C-alpha cells in the first residue's frame, strides 16, 4: 500500500510541485491550505508523513504540530521561511522531526522524507539488539516502542532514532556534530541547537528528574552519552 503524505501549505505552487514530485515516486498525497483544514484531514484519515508549513492561516503550523503530537507520532517536517530561526526551534520543541528552510530543493525534500520513513519503519540492522533493557526502561526496536517502569513513553521518530543510537553505543560520548551525522544521516545544514532541543525533549520524557539524569548525561565541552551502568 502506498504511503500517504499530507502537504500543509498555503502557497499553491509549492503544493503543486511537491504533489507532482512525490506522486511520481509512488506516494499518495493530500493537501490542506490552512491549519484548521490540516487538523480536520489528519484526524479524519490516515497519513504516514506530514510536510507542515509554519506560517498558516487560521491555525499556525506550530500549534498544528503540537495538537497532532498529543495523539500521534507520525513523522513531521516543518517548512520555515528563511531566517525564521525561532520558528525552527519552536517546531522541534513541539515535536517536529526535522525542518527545512524555504526556498528548498524538492529533490532534497524527497530524500529527507525517504530517510525518515525508512528509519521510522522499524528496520533494524543489528538483530541482537531488537529489545534492550536498561534499569527499568525497555527499548523495543521491532515496533519502535519505549516503556519506563512498565508505562509507555511516546517518542517522535527522531527522538527514538536518537535514543537508539545512544543505547546501542552505551558510554560513548557523541558530539553534537556526530549526532547530526549519525541520526539525521543526510547532508544536514542545520545548526547544533537541533540536537540540544531533541536531547532536552528526550530527557523530559525518559528522565524522572531531568536535572539529575539516570540515562542521558552531558560531557561538558564535548557532547552527550548514555549511561553504561545497568
Characterise the protein shown here.
The structure is a single chain. The chain is an alpha/beta fold. The protein is built from eight helices and eleven strands. Helix 6 packs across helix 8. The longest helix has 15 residues. About 3% of the residues have low confidence.
Compact summary:
With about 230 residues, the protein is α/β, with parallel strands linked by helices.
Work out the helicity level: 25-40%
Strand order of the largest sheet: 2-1-3-4-5
Beta content comes to 15-25%
What is the radius of gyration? 18 Å
Net shape: globular
Kindly state the mean pLDDT as a whole number? 86
SS class? alpha/beta
> How many β-strand runs?
11
Uncertain segments: 123-128
**What is the overall number of helices?**
8
Assembly state of the chains shown: single chain
> What is the helix/strand order?
EHEHEHEHEHEEEEHHHEE
Main sheet characteristics: 5 strands, parallel
| Amino-to-carboxy terminus distance | 41 Å
What key phrases describe this protein's structure?
globular, 230 residues, 4-stranded antiparallel beta sheet, 5-stranded parallel beta sheet, 8 helices, alpha/beta
